[in-house]
Write a structure and sequence with these properties.
477 residues, alpha/beta, Amidase signature (AS) enzymes, two-stranded antiparallel sheet, globular
């Protein structure tokens, strides 16, 4: 197989090559490290590359999976065994620099692993490195003032999204087979959409966030980014607190259309289509037609409180982020060490009153109740909406134009993602098309509580029958 075929293979395909003896974890890890050395300067996707650790883990995986020599039976930890992945740099690894994309933590070496790191190690994954991110996960561009901007593999002049931008860029460019990111207001789904890959935000509390540097304790979630929904399912199975860690992935029946005929989807009348680019709306409408053509039941639903999710989510996140940074002793005492945009948001958070915070929490509770009630009354399995109303903006582009009106880029990218965080429900983004300029467009499914596997199945079915993952031209080896 060529370098490109290997670098962009699925996790299941690579796992089979390992077990057939046609490829070894050591060989694949060396290939990925070579690609990172050669291609990461184009993207700035990694802050830290853990080459020595990756080689040790790959060597161990190779020995465990081997059946020759003294060992008569292999030790098989599941489909992630020997697979090279990356981690967002706010997820702590014992003895490995974890910066959270900040100057303040530029020399921070945690003493303990995050809970998800322990689970990934148990699954036998190989860690290639820690990925670039928006400073302290507090933004959506990954235009990092301390480590440089991460770039989009489809157009290096554009952002990959954020805050898990380096993770998405590395996955899309074939510099790892998956990554673990965090999502507080869209920080997994936004970069997944802008980079043309799959990103799953699990429901609140589904994956342990212990050992992850927080942003907003009410909203923070940890989840996978991958090129396919099936790969995302394998990663999710490894980190899911309720999973077996074996990463068996999406169930495969071979009759995707029959399974989609059992799915009931709702499209909200409110909010999601008030501000949206024509190319994104066209691609979304085509996706709806495709989903219907495959047998899924799709109908409009009304969720009036969606209009209040933006302000409520912002106030909660602002206040909780500022409180954490104040309690850590960093803000405002070390305010000069923050990037300008993050510093400004922390200052806003200091101004949120207790009454405003409690009002926002009340609005959150009302929205959760309404969303749950609508999904039960209308008998729908998930909402189907765009992931972002625009495609990847240029690096440094503070405003984006839609129908001759300029809108703040940050607010646009957050807008359609905040509802799932506020409600604490799972949501997934999968590519549903490309613009005329070749930029990816994302489709989002929001599920009910504990509905992660159904979302992964829906995304997998849609992806297999409509838009298999594509390779950015500049990263084909």
């Amino acid at each position: 197989m060529s370098e490109t075929e290997l670098a962009f293979g699925t996790i299941a395909e690579i796992a089979q090559l390992f077990r057939s003896g046609k490829l070894s974890p050591v060989e694949l890890t060396e290939l990925m490290l070579a690609r990172i050395e050669r291609m990461n300067p184009k993207l700035n996707a990694y802050i830290t590359v853990t080459g020595d650790l990756a080689r040790r883990q790959a060597k161990r995986a190779e020995a465990e999976l081997a059946t020759s020599g003294k060992r008569k039976t292999r030790i098989d930890r599941g489909l992630l065994h020997g697979i090279p992945i990356s981690l967002k740099d706010n997820i702590c690894n014992a003895g490995i620099r974890t910066t959270a994309g900040s100057k303040i933590l530029c020399d921070y070496f945690p003493e303990r692993d995050a809970a998800v790191v322990s689970r990934l190690e148990d699954a036998g994954a190989v860690l290639l490195g820690k990925t670039n991110m928006h400073e302290f996960a507090y933004g959506v561009t990954t235009n990092n003032p301390h480590y440089g901007p991460a770039r989009n593999p489809w157009d290096a002049t554009r952002i990959p999204g954020g805050s898990s931008g380096g993770s998405a860029a590395a996955v899309a460019a074939g510099l790892c087979f998956g990554s673990i990111g965090t999502d507080t207001g869209g920080s997994i789904r936004i970069p997944a959409a802008l980079c043309g890959i799959v990103g799953l935000k699990p429901g609140f509390g589904r994956v342990d966030v212990a050992g992850v540097i927080p942003l907003s304790v009410t909203h923070d979630c940890v989840g996978p980014l991958a090129r396919t929904a099936a790969d995302a399912a394998i990663l999710f199975a490894a980190i899911d607190d309720e999973g077996d860690g074996k990463g068996k992935g999406v169930r495969r029946s071979g009759s995707c259309s029959r399974k989609l005929s059992k799915v009931r989807l709702g499209i909200p009348r409110e909010f999601f289509f008030d501000v949206i680019s024509s190319e994104v709306k066209k691609s979304f409408d085509a996706a709806v037609g495709s989903i219907r053509g495959l047998g899924a039941k799709v109908k409009e639903v009304s969720i009036p409180l969606l209009a209040k999710t933006e302000n409520a989510g912002n106030r909660i996140a602002w206040a909780e982020a500022s409180y954490y940074h104040q309690q850590s002793g960093w803000f405002p005492g070390r305010a000069a060490e923050y990037g300008e945009d993050v510093r400004a948001r922390l200052e806003m958070g200091m101004k949120v009153s207790a009454v405003e915070y409690l009002e926002a929490m009340d609005q959150r509770g009302s929205f959760i109740t309404q969303l749950r009630g609508v999904m039960e009354k209308e008998a729908i399995d998930a909402l189907m909406v765009p992931t972002t109303p625009i495609v990847a903006p240029l690096i440094g582009e503070e405003n984006s134009r839609i129908q001759e009106v300029d809108h703040p880029t940050r607010a646009l990218l957050l807008r359609l993602n905040r509802p799932a965080n506020l409600a604490g429900v799972p949501a997934i983004s999968v590519a549903c098309g490309f613009t005329a300029a070749g930029l990816p467009i994302g489709l989002q499914f929001m599920g009910a509580e504990r509905g992660e596997q159904l979302l992964l199945d829906i995304a997998d079915m849609y992806q297999r029958l409509n838009l298999p993952p594509k390779v950015p031209p500049s990263f084909r080896g």
